[in-house]
Amino acid sequence: MLQPRPVRILFITSTRIGDAVLSTGLLDHLIRAYPQAKVVVACGPVAEGVFARMPNRAWTIVLEKQRFRLHWLGLWRQVAGSRWDLVVDLRGSGFAWMVRAKRRVVMRGGRNPGHRLAQLGALLGLDPPPLPVAWFGPAERTRAAMLLPGEGPWIGLGPTANWDRKVWPPERFIALFEALSAPFGPLPGARAAILGGPGAQERAMAAPVLAALGDRAVDLVGTLSLPEAAAVLARCAIFIGNDSGLMHLSAATGTPTLGLFGPSRPEEYAPAGRRTAIAVAPGSPAVDSMPGLTLAAALDAAERLLTAPVAA
After folding, report:
1. Cys-Cys link to 134, which of 13, 81, 204, 253 (CB 3.0-4.6 A)?
2. Dist CA 287 CA 13 (whole Å)
3. Of 74, 91, 123, which residue constitutes the final position of a domain?
4. CB contact at 8 A, 180 and 278
5. Same domain for 249 and 275?
6. d(CA 269, CA 248)
């Protein structure tokens, strides 16, 4: 007896880690709706690891940006020979109409109102939208247990970002950790896991925090794959970080996640998960507002997050 061919889905998502993580909720919904589906993901190079352990992934196509948008031609050459049951294009391009497909879902380009997660859910008529997920396997879980040994508690800190004006002063990260891990704090005796991306700039941002915390901290800046980072974040009692891909990845694991925001858009890019909160610097996004976010405001948000009930 002939078996029906699996549903073929082409999913074109972001070049950035944060946006790619936010799109995992849609993918998880599609995988659950079509358990036999074969999914091809197209994304930017830095976001590739988000999907490395994704169920039902046939393969990932890495879109390296090229002059004259020739990366789209490269993608077309790899997928034009197939007939797709569904093409999802979150890049707002016209690519979905360049391949054979039964159904196409394309996000509008430009700025859209509301949180990014709601924008994504609306594409498939999902309200509430599905929450992001973080995929990692037994190997990543084992490595995370080696990197963060014991029962904890561990506090994840993300003192880096891809833009200087998104970075909360390092001395406040240090003071916040001290307050949370103090004998009468909410996480007495906690140790710190310091995370960040690769490269000299991120290492320089994290260096003051690492130096101050010494042997109470584990240096994981630029050393982890994204599935490994997800497994590490899942072991933390809380993650506190600047607006970054790591913040979104932490929220996707279900770990309590506090996002620190200055001149970015929390109304669109606040962390999305079962236990999340934000602390927003006062003032105009047009100025360097992160120094205006006080230690007291961040500590209050962290303490409330740690005691808040888990969302259904």
Report:
1. 253
2. 31
3. 123
4. no
5. yes
6. 9
pLDDT in tens, 43-102: 999 999 999 999 999 999 999 887 767 889 999 999 999 999 999 999 988 899 999 999
Residues 203 and 300 in one domain: yes
Q: Are residues 118 and 143 in the same domain?
A: no
β-pair type (191-196, 104-106): unpaired
Question: Residue-wise over 188-217: b if at least 16 C-beta within 10 A, else e?
Answer: eebbbbbbbbeeeebbebbbebbebbeeeb
Domain check: are 164 and 295 in the same one?
A: yes
Is 287 found in the same domain as 187? yes
User: Which tokens is 132 given?
Assistant: 């992001």
CA atoms within 13 A on the CB side of 221: 22
| 165 shares a domain with 96 | no
* Cβ-proximal residues to 209 (8 Å cutoff; 6+ apart), any chain: 157, 159, 170, 173, 174, 177, 192, 194, 217
Considering the domain architecture, whether residues 28 and 111 belong to the same structural domain is answered as yes
Q: DSSP secondary-structure letter at 215? A: G
Tell me the pLDDT tens digit for each residue of 156-202: 999 999 888 899 999 999 999 999 999 999 999 999 999 999 999 99
Helices (H) and strands (E) in the chain, counts: 11, 11
Look at the chain and count its residues: 312
Q: What single-letter DSSP state applies at residue 101?
A: B
Expressed as residue numbers, the domain containing 211 is: 139-307
Do 34 and 85 lie in a common domain? Answer: yes
Residue 115 has pLDDT above 90, yes or no: yes
| Total tally of structural domains belonging to the chain | 2
Vertex 230 angle, CA 273 and 142, to 5°: 135
